[in-house]
């Protein structure tokens, strides 16, 4: 039995690695396997920036990948948590009675919205700042 609240919280906690997708669709899920590589590359970018400073251009490219992976996972968590119970059970728990998701899914959705919005804005701000700084230094 696949629980909506569990899927929402997995997307919130470890969704950047695709574990919420593997919980729902198994290890053969192609979309789930798209999460780990950009997440790990983004983490490499964070490490590069910590060690080499803010002028490392490769880190500028890699760090937004982490933000995009995180935001994509949290959008999935929002969708999971807001799916009506009947549709959820028809898709993930066929031939079983509909079980209400309760407050666990709702709290997970609120946290996904809060963290996802913050991550999205931070990713946009970081990327825009680095872009404009590079344009300013490129002009004579």
TrEMBL record:
Transmembrane intervals: 31-46, 58-82, 102-126
Keyword annotations of the record: Membrane, Transmembrane, Transmembrane helix
Protein name: TM2 domain-containing protein
């Amino acid at each position: 039995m696949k629980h909506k609240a569990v899927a929402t919280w997995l997307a919130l906690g470890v969704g950047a690695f695709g574990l919420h997708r593997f919980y729902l669709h198994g290890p053969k899920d192609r979309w789930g396997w798209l999460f780990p590589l950009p997440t790990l590359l983004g983490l490499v970018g964070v490490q590069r920036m910590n060690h080499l400073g803010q002028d490392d251009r490769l880190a500028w490219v890699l760090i937004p990948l982490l933000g995009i992976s995180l935001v994509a996972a949290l959008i999935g968590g929002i969708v999971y948590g807001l799916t009506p119970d009947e549709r959820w059970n028809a898709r993930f728990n066929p031939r079983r009675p509909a079980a209400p998701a309760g407050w666990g899914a709702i709290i997970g959705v609120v946290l996904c919205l809060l963290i996802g919005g913050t991550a999205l804005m931070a990713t946009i701000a970081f990327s825009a700042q680095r872009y404009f700084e590079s344009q300013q230094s490129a002009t004579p």
